[in-house]
Each structure stands twice: as C-alpha cells, then as structure tokens.
Design brief:
heterodimer; A: mainly beta; 12-stranded antiparallel β-barrel; 3 helices; 5% helix; disordered N terminus; B: mainly beta; 4-stranded antiparallel sheet; 1 helix; globular
Chain lengths: 311, 125
C-alpha cells in the first residue's frame, strides 16, 4: 500500500512560495495529470474512487489479487492538503483459498513548496503514516505504524527548443518508509523436533522512489500545434509510471512495477487505464492492469468541498 | 469479467452519469482556435478567436498578439464580447504582414481558476 503524506509541517509552511488560484495540477500552461501509481507533485482537492488493480503473484506466488482502493485529499490551506486512503482486496489461488478484507488506512499531509509557472515546475514535500492494525488481520496487514517522508517534483518541457519535446512532462518522487517496530517475534513449532521455537521477522526501512513520463496531447493542441485530432482525443495523456521499493537492509530484492497507459482528462474528472508490468518475479508473475476514476473536487464543488478550508 | 469487475464498471458508469450535471464547472481549456497553434496561413486573418471548454470572464481575460517585429498588435473587441462567454473574439486593427505571430492568453473561468497558454501562427508572404 502506498503511504500518503502525513504529519504537520507547520515550520515548513512558512517557506511557502507564491501560488495563484490555478487549481489542480496546473503549473502555468502545464496540466499535470493525476497519475494512478505515482503520487502527484501538487496539492489539490481530489478523490480517486475507485482504483481497481488486478495482478497475480505480487503478494505471494500463485495468488491472484483484485484490489479496490480510494484516496481522498482535501486542501487545508491553498498549499497544504490532508489525505486519507484505504482499500479492500480479494485474494485467491493461495493455500488459504479465497480471502478478502481491508488494508490498513493511510493518512498524510502534503505541502506544496514551489510553483514556478514559467518553468512549469512544481515541488512538494509530504509525510504520511500507514495506521497499523486498521485493516483486516487475516489479510496479513501490519499491526504497527509505518511512517513515510517523501519529496515530489514535476517539470514540464514547454520551454524546450524543439516542438516535439514541449508536450512532455515528468514527475518524480523519493522517500523513506520507516516501520515503527524493528522486529516482530512469534511462536512456531519446529517441524523436525515438534518443539516450540521463537522466530523473528525483521522490519526494515525501505526507500521508495519512481516517477512518470507524460505526453500531453492537450498541451500539443493548445500550445504547440493543432494536429486536427478530435476534441476527445486531445484530452488524452499517454503516460508511463514507475514505482520502486527497495529495502535498505536484509536480503529482500527491490520490487515495483512499470505502468504504461492512457489517462483521459474530462471536465471535473479523469479516467485512467494502465498495464501493470512487474519489474521482477518478486513483484509479480504476470502483467496485470489498473483502472481509476479520479474526480477534481475543485472543479466539481468550487465553492464548498473543492476549496481550501482556510484561504 | 467477474462480479467484482462488473461492480466496478457499474460504479464508474453511475459516477460519470452523476457528473454530467457538473459540466458547467471546470477549468477553461483551449478547445479550438483560429488561427490555431502552429498554423500557416496563406491569407492574413482579420482577427483571432479562441473557444474554451467553459465560460470565461471576458472582463478579466487577457489576450496579446505580438508581431514578428516584437510589437504588440492592437485588438478590437466586437460589441457582443462582454460578460461571460466560451469564445473570445478579437479583430486586428491593421492587416497582418508576413511572418510568425505569437499569441498569449490568460482567462478566468467560472470555477474561479486562471488558465493560460501561448502559441504561434505564421502568415505566408
């Protein structure tokens, strides 16, 4: 489960830079689409509901997983947002047959530090916590908190010299995921001697990182060259997402996925569909897919839910 | 598609249907422009029009067209171009010479957000 930024950043808030009322995902002419796998580099009032992911072998060999997730983000000030996310999944094909239940809830805050409209650049920092024990115990969720601190950046290439480069944009994130508990001890039975033994499971800090490459047909149409595509096609953003998770200790391997897909941005919402390609066997056994319906609350409810609590 | 998939598809369809009533609120994105981005015209245009995805406040709207020499062109607003509209129309006070012109716009839409953009078009000699 991706952990959403959390924890107060009162001290950092004082560092805030200027932000005009440009709304979700805009840095000057650039609109950064909200991506499915990688957290966006800006703050916004938004709701991702649902995000449906189908994959095989990610949690455990032979297990197929169908997961429904949500994420809700609400701006407290124009530059500071609170978020909450969670999910429900069904797993089948494993030794335990079909199991289903909730994942742990995640809460967080994200603060937008920089918005440079001319350079189409945005940067944010966030902190979050996965709340241990809030999910279904039989799903194997952790019963302790996991904290995360992350930096997010986004950059559009509208000022590039070559026209073909201008519709491109990238986003990236990097952070640490730190478990509140270093190890968990549990009793088990030695299969050879049938004696009770105590085993330990270590919980290590992980580096989480990745990014997206986006090609905005809307940017191409409006700012570079009208290619004559129909309006609906000009609202498509082909995107490739990458998200990786590397343990900083122990012998586990880096896991993650590469997600190529398309995101169609409408007025007030967007729809995305991506393939989920595991980067190695530890990340999954076959190509899965993810689809998401994402609402821009500042478009839909500009005078209530879609505006900051404190201007 | 299993039951979960069908439920997800149904939820998405219902959400989109509910959203159809909210189309009036949104950021103003450029839908069509004449001259359009990157266009090359053999006949000089008499004016410029830009259609947006939602209504914009014409009193707050900014539209600048810069000639190849770097001077900004004087624009004329038709009488009906007041209040809120999805289309911004301006005429050129004088005929355009050959060269590449820059268009820069910034609009305030009904949802209370600014959006902006710029592009170039070329008039052939």
């Amino acid at each position: 489960m991706r952990i959403v930024p959390i924890l107060p950043f009162a001290a950092v808030a004082a560092m805030c830079c200027s932000l005009s009322a440009a709304g979700h995902g805009y840095a000057g002419k650039r609109f950064f689409t909200a991506t499915i796998l990688v957290e966006d580099p800006f703050v916004a009032d938004e709701l991702a509901l649902p995000t449906y992911t189908h994959r095989k072998g990610g949690e455990e060999p032979g297990v197929t997983e169908d997961e429904f997730e949500f994420e809700f983000a609400k701006r407290i000030t124009p530059l500071l947002a609170f978020s909450i996310e969670g999910g429900w999944s069904r797993e089948h094909g494993g030794e335990e047959g079909k199991v289903e239940g909730f994942s742990n809830l995640g809460v967080g805050v994200k603060h937008q530090l920089v918005l440079d409209e001319d350079d189409e650049f945005v940067a944010s920092i966030g902190a979050g916590v996965e709340l241990g024990g809030t999910g279904s115990e039989h799903m194997g969720v952790e019963d302790f908190n996991t904290y995360e601190a992350t930096v997010y950046v986004g950059k559009g290439f509208g000022s590039a010299g070559a026209n073909w480069v201008k519709p491109f944009a990238v986003t990236a994130f990097a952070g640490l995921s730190i478990p509140a508990r270093g190890k968990t001890s549990f009793e088990t039975i030695d299969p050879d001697t049938l004696d009770p033994v105590t085993e330990e499971e270590r919980h290590v800090t992980h580096a989480v990182y990745g990014g997206t490459l986006q090609y905005s047909l809307a940017y191409l149409h409006a700012n570079v060259e009208d290619t004559g595509l129909p309006d609906w096609a000009n609202q498509i953003t082909p995107v490739i997402e990458l998200s990786l998770d590397s343990p900083l200790a122990g012998d586990e391997r880096t896991t993650g996925s590469i997600n190529p897909g398309l995101i169609w941005s409408g007025q007030g919402y967007q729809i995305g569909a991506e393939a989920v390609i595991p980067i190695n066997r530890d990340s999954g056994e076959s190509v899965g897919f993810a689809v998401q319906l994402h609402f821009y609350l500042d478009d839909l409810f500009p005078n209530s839910l879609g505006k900051p609590l404190f201007e | 598609m299993n039951r979960l998939g069908k439920a997800a598809a149904l939820a998405i369809v219902l959400c989109l249907a509910a959203l159809s009533a909210s189309e009036a609120f949104a950021h103003a994105a450029l839908l069509h422009a004449s001259p359009s981005a990157g266009q090359t015209l053999s006949v000089p245009p008499k004016g410029i029009s830009i259609e947006f995805s939602t209504k914009v406040d014409l009193s707050k709207m900014e539209l600048h067209v810069t000639a190849p020499s770097g001077t900004e062109l004087a624009l004329v607003a038709p009488e009906l171009q007041t209040g809120m509209s999805t289309t911004v129309i301006r005429g050129f006070k004088s005929a355009l010479a050959a060269g590449t012109y820059s268009v820069r716009w910034r609009v305030f839409s009904v949802d209370g957000h600014w959006t902006r953009g710029d592009y170039t078009f070329t008039v052939e000699g």
